[in-house]
Amino acid sequence: MVLGMIVRFLIALAIALVVTATPALAQTQGRRAAMVVELYTSQGCTQCPRANRLLGIFSREDDVLALTFPVGIWDYLGWHDTFAQPEFAERQRSISQRLRVRGRFTPQLVVNGARTVSASDWDEARAIYDEQERTGWPGNAPDVSLTLLRNGRARATVGSGAIGANADVWMLAYDPGPVTVVITGGANRNRTVPHYNLVTWIERVGTWNGAGVWAERQRCQPQCAVLVQEPNGGRILAAAYTSRPER
């Protein structure tokens, strides 16, 4: 009788451990990005709806992480951008200062944190994109991976690299969209503006100095990305992201 009770207890304990572990073990592995393209856009900018469509085109390229960062630079014209956040404006400011751009502007395209161009000129934007695609990641680029756990947490891992490296680790969430907004005021009154890979939050989660590091965050949905970037808006060294399955 005692033996039977012990056996039943062990079986129940085993089942409980499996049930408890399942959410953490079941996971979706992200992919490493070959390029990162950032668009700083505003719903109050007349050239931005067209630039948003260009970002959508880049987002369909293989292994390209294309991200939309809305900023409220033109809010004073009568329409407040519904997705703009102070963190996005600060990121644009840091990148512009690092790349020695005089002031912020929209639509601004930034490729790999290394080159910037106006996204209103599709030919020039494509030329910069192609140039960075040929250049690739720098030699000190670390291995980076992103795992989306079933329990809702996302885990970013950055591998070891050159001793003395110096970079920030960022995690962000984005909505693939397209997310459309009907503008009822300002310069784009009565226009429907699409947004692709719309960033909803971004956070600096740590630093990388050549030693392997990892970080987890809870609210990294519907899709998640990790960037390893030189400080103060510098070059992006590596990136990984999750994406919805192709249909």
Describe the structure concisely for a colleague.
This protein is an alpha+beta fold and 247 residues long. The protein has helices spanning 2-25, 48-59, 86-98, 122-135, and strands at residues 27-29, 31-32, 35-41, 64-70, 108-111, 115-118, 144-149, 154-158, 167-175, 179-182, 192-195, 198-208, 213-217, 223-229, 236-241.
Structure description:
The chain has helices spanning 2-25, 48-59, 86-98, 122-135, and strands at 27-29, 31-32, 35-41, 64-70, 108-111, 115-118, 144-149, 154-158, 167-175, 179-182, 192-195, 198-208, 213-217, 223-229, 236-241. It has one domain (28-241). The strands form 4 sheets. The protein has a 5-stranded antiparallel beta sheet, with no helix packed on it. A 4-stranded antiparallel beta sheet has the order 1-7-8-13, with helices on one face. It is globular. It has 247 residues and is α+β, with helices and mostly antiparallel strands. Strand 3, helix 2 (48-59) and strand 4 (64-70) form a beta-alpha-beta unit. The chain contains 4 helices and 15 strands.
Structural class: alpha+beta
Q: Tell me, briefly, the overall form.
A: globular
**What is the topology, as strand order, of the major beta sheet?**
2-15-14-9-12
In N-to-C order, the SSE pattern is: HEEEHEHEEHEEEEEEEEE
As an assembly, this protein is single chain
Strand content: 25-35%
- Could you give a short account of the major beta sheet? 5 strands, antiparallel
Q: What would you report as the Rg, rounded to the nearest angstrom?
A: 21 Å
Tally the beta strands: 15
- Helicity, in percent? 25-40%
In terms of per-residue confidence, which ranges show pLDDT below 50 for 5 or more consecutive residues?
Answer: 1-26
CA-CA gap between termini: 56 Å
Number of structurally distinct domains: 1
Instruction: Output mean pLDDT.
Output: 88
Compute the number of helices. Answer: 4
